[in-house]
Every structure is written in C-alpha cells, then in structure tokens.
C-alpha cells in the first residue's frame, strides 16, 4: 500500500506492506486522517518518547525508531474485510473509527505507533473489531476523523469531575483544549474561561462554548470573574503541554483547586509539594479517550451538538504530509489538517 | 515567661515576653507539648522555608528567622484568662487544645511559627477562642498533646476519599503515617499496608491498625496481596517527606491509582507527567488538620478507640528540648517526646 511513514525521524512517501487481518481484526481502507501535534512531537523526539516508555512504562516501548512505521491515529475508513474467525459485526462498505488501540496477546498496541498496526497515513489499516465503532454513512469523512481528537478533550473534561459549582479554566486552545471546552459545555458547566496567546484560537474557544477567552499576557486567567459573581476559576485544565505549566498552575490556583493535566509533556516537570499542600490541591492526570468518550464524541458531532467545522483546514494527499507537519505547530495553522491517503 | 525558643537556627532557653491576650484570645498555661519533626526541620532549614513561603505563598512568610520565636504546635494547656471583650466560653481552669492557628486581621498566624503567637515550648500561649476546643479534665496531658499530630494523619486519611473498594498503602510510619493508619482503621478500610525501614515503626503500624507491615527493602509494598485476593494497593499515602518519593510512587502505582502527598518536603520534586498520565493517576496534596479532624482525634483518644500510648516516649523540661530535637529524627527515637514547659 501507499503510505506516508516515519523512519529515523524523517517523513517518507512510498510503499509499505499491506496489513493482513487476523482473527478479530477488520481490514479498513482509510478515507481521512487528522494530523496531530503528537505526530510532530514523535517525528522529532520519538526516540526519547520510546526510551521513557521503556523506562517508566508507556505504550511506545515496543517501537523501533529506526524501522518504518505509519502514523495517524485520528482516522475514519471503510471496512473491506475481516480476518478469519472474526465476528464481522460491521458490514464491509460501512465506515468506522476507533480508539487507536489494538489488543495483542493481553497487551495493547497503539495504532499508528506500531510496526504491526499502521495508522491512518496509509491506505490500509487494521482495527480491533471489538473496539471500533460504526460511523453513520452520511457523516462527512473529515468530521468523522475529528471524533478521536474531540474524544480526548471529552475524557479530560470528564476526569476533572466537574460540577455546577465549578468555575472552569482551560489553558491552551488547541484541539485538546477546544475539546475540553466543548465537553464542559455539553455537561452544562459555567463559567468556562479559555486562555490562549492567539486571537484565532480564542475565537474558536468562544465558538466551542467558552464564556470568556483571555490573552494571558493581558489578563490573568486566574483572576476573579466580575461577570460571574467574582468567582475564581477552581477547576483548571492544562492543555498546553509545556514544561513548567504544572508549578505555574500550582502557584496560581485557589485553595482546594483541582488541576487536570491534559497536555502531553515529555520533559521532567518540577514542582514544590509544599506549595500544593498549602492549598490542598488535587491533580488529576488525564491520558486520552476511552470507548465511552469516542461514543459521546461521535454522537455529538453527528447530531450537531458539537460543531468541529471550525477545526478543519486544508485536505492534503500523502505528498502534503511532510509540509503540513512542519508548519502545523504554529498557532496560525488550522486546528486540524487532514490527509486522504487515497490521494498522492 | 520561661521558654525554649529558636533564634537564627539555634535553641535557647530563657525569658521571653509574656503574651498579652486581645479580644477573642485566651491566655493559656501550657501543660505539655509534643516535639515534632517539623520543629527540627524548621530549626535547620527555617530560612529556606520562610523564603519559599514568601515566594510561593505559605504560612511562614511573616516570620523573621533572626528574631526569637517560641515553637511548639502540639499542645495542651489550661485557660488562665481572656482578652477584654472575649466570649469566654471555656472557663478558666479548664484544659484546651487547638489547631495551631490564630486569626489576625483576616489573615492567619501559625501558633509556634510567629513572633506574636508563641507555641507550646513556652509557659504561656495565646489561643483563638473560636478555634480552640475543650479537653476533658480527666484526659492525661500527654495524650491530649497528641490530638494535633493525630489530627494531621486523620486529615490526610480523609483527603484520600477512601472507600471499601480501596486497598490502602501507607509509606512511612512516623506520627503522620501512624495517624493515617489509625484514621483508615476508624473508617473501616481494609486492607491497610504499612511500609517502613524500621522494625519498631512497623510494630507500631500493626498496633495502629495496619493488616500488614513490610520492610520495603525486602518486599515491595506495591506487590499484589495474596491474603487479600491478590489486590494491589491503589490508594497510596506518602508520609515520608523525602525528595523523589512522588515520582517513585508514580512509577509503582497501578492504573487509576490515587496518591495522597502527606509528607512535608521543601525540596523541589521532579516528575514525569506522561508517566502519571499513562495510568490516569490522581494526586491529592494534603496539608494538615482542620477543626473537624481535631474534634475526631480528641474524641478517639478520649474514648480509647485510638490509643496513642505507644507513641509517647520521655517527658522533658525546657532544658531537654535541644537534645531531644537533635536526637529525635532517627527512627529509634520515640514517635513523640513531650516537653512540660513548667519544668526547667
């Protein structure tokens, strides 16, 4: 099959082996796949991520950075076939997406970060038939590809255990932060404050459901909120993923505050335990979507209660992957560019 | 009054000004006061603790390390008088203890770490009459002095939100860890695993209610528990307070594990966010007792449901404070030595 693959920290376009479905595996033809900041991260720092996974326990331990693998974990595709002995619950021709996880002998492979389970930057994928979910046939492919990144935000939102008494603050309005905002709105949480350096992202945050969006260089996002009875944000979602954020939030959070660490930061983070103890803070580490979040995200996108249209930028073929990855980290890039691997 | 006081990191015995009660303040004659590891900590590293409090927000910002102050925050004493205009709810002659907090113009002073509010290493103290609680007259003074350190452990235990489904692990069996164990037992949590390097402390842990006490150099305290259906400790209390504990626990904890950070560590702590995210861990920072914990601790000590007798070592006069502080950090020292400041 044709694919955009990573090898030794470089993007290549070319032939990769067609995956062969085993029992319980669907063979899927990819229609659309989002390009995610973690793909960029992995392209540059993949060896470090693999080493840390081996040392500390993580899902990338089995990956060999020097061997080709096909990334792409925000995908939608069409079922072509199944491995022998499969349940075949979704008929060939129907569309599916999935948590990018494949069960393997009691362990899990991450689809897109595995030599056995190519991701959505290739023409063909294998999905676990017990994990994948069917996508309505009339849902646009690119919208369907946003189910996974939205589900990550919904998981983070949910892990904060938000209640009607919380004033939520979302730091960073990339796909994850926007998904958190949309999730909080869906749960009826108010107020929701968003913070991002860039005006375009703040506009998207308001569209996603934030009541206020601030530039943290101009207004402290931790300040009391005059329009909301001078409440102070007490439930703080970290969706930036840069070193130093945790201690900065600890210093800014109010007594009894709760922090959800959503941003994926591979650097060692430093904090002062006693500063967090003085305020009795709680830190919930959020990791990524579970099947229930995929189901919620799919339903919300399909019924229009969450609109991901503003996330979507250009659509590229395989030959556009390298350039898009090089340019997408900037805040002026669209939230998501998608690749259609059927197109070169 | 006579007192053992700290000045510039040294212990002195001598005269200190008699405190004068204002409105809402009781003047109290100290009967007994526990010597705590934080006193030792403050004696050696007080300037650093004050600096960090000023930089990061903490209760010691107003203290001048170069000026005398009288420590001692685990006290019981007898009410002598009140400031003018006080409510005087507890009659003179009755015994009281208190969260070591004094309200001051909308802020709080920590009794024992304040130039205005001397602690229990002196003959006289001021207590906030709205915060102090009466101690039954027939309760032994030294047992009553243990209400505060026990209440710290009860607060930590409670902040972990333990349920019947949790298998609890308490790392470190000093006064705080023992208080956590006693609190968990009071709440009916099982199993409770205790870990400490020292046999004497492990014995105390079993007396306090732990089902198993292990030497972590011999048996991993995070291992499955054959006597409890191979459950793995999922609610982990850090009561050691040494640098590096948080990341070590993150690496050892199971998926969905909860960590309560009770140990008071002033060093910068490092952690890998992604390692905690992979397991969706939750970290609750615990800070110290609230009035409800003091009430619970007093009731439990008074009715015998928690027995602090094994905690108590020698009783010293003021002249014994310096030597006791020098020797108490070792695990072979009793959990608590108390000072009676009426005795030289």
TrEMBL record, chains A, B:
Transmembrane segment boundaries: 168-194
Superkingdom to which the source organism belongs: Bacteria
Cofactor(s) required for function per UniProt: Zn(2+)
Family annotation (SUPFAM superfamilies): GroES-like (SSF50129), NAD(P)-binding Rossmann-fold domains (SSF51735)
Pfam families: ADH_N (PF08240), ADH_zinc_N (PF00107)
Residue intervals of the Alcohol dehydrogenase-like C-terminal domain: 175-302
Keyword Membrane attributed: yes
Alphabetical keyword list: Membrane, Metal-binding, Oxidoreductase, Transmembrane, Transmembrane helix, Zinc
PROSITE patterns, A to Z: ADH_ZINC
PANTHER family referenced in this protein's UniProt entry, alphabetically: ZINC-TYPE ALCOHOL DEHYDROGENASE-LIKE PROTEIN C1198.01 (PTHR43189:SF1), ZINC-TYPE ALCOHOL DEHYDROGENASE-LIKE PROTEIN C1198.01-RELATED (PTHR43189)
Protein name in UniProt: Zinc-binding dehydrogenase
Source organism: Novosphingobium anseongense
């Amino acid at each position: 099959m044709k694919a955009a693959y990573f090898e030794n920290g470089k993007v290549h376009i070319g032939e990769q082996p067609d995956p062969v479905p085993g029992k319980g595996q669907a063979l899927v033809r990819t229609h659309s796949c989002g390009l995610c900041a973690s793909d960029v991260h992995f392209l540059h720092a993949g060896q470090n991520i693999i080493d840390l996974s081996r040392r500390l326990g993580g899902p990338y331990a089995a990956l060999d950075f020097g061997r080709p693998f096909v990334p792409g974990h925000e995908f939608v595709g069409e079922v072509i076939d199944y491995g022998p002995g499969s349940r075949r619950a979704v008929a060939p021709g129907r569309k599916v997406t999935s948590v990018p996880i494949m069960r393997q002998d009691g362990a899990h492979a991450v689809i897109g970060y595995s030599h056995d389970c190519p991701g959505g930057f290739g023409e063909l994928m294998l999905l676990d038939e017990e994990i994948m979910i069917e996508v309505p046939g009339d849902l646009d492919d690119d919208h369907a590809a946003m189910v996974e990144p939205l589900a990550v935000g919904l998981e983070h939102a949910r892990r904060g255990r938000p209640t009607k008494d919380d004033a939520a603050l979302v730091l960073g309005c990339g796909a994850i932060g926007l998904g958190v905002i949309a999730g909080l709105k869906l749960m009826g949480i108010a107020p929701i404050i968003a913070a991002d350096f860039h005006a375009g992202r703040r506009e998207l945050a308001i569209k996603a459901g934030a009541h206020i969006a601030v530039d943290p260089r101009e207004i402290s996002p931790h300040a009391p909120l005059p329009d909301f009875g001078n409440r102070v944000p007490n439930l703080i979602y970290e969706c930036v993923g840069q070193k130093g954020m945790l201690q900065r939030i600890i210093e800014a959070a109010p007594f009894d505050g709760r922090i959800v660490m959503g941003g994926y930061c591979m650097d060692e983070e430093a904090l002062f335990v006693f500063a967090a103890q003085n305020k009795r803070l709680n830190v919930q580490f959020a990791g990524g979507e579970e099947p229930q979040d995929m189901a919620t995200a799919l339903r919300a996108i399909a019924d229009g209660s969450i609109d991901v249209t503003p996330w979507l930028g250009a659509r590229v073929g395989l030959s556009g992957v390298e350039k898009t990855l090089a340019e997408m980290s900037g805040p002026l890039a669209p939230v998501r560019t998608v690749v259609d691997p059927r197109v070169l």
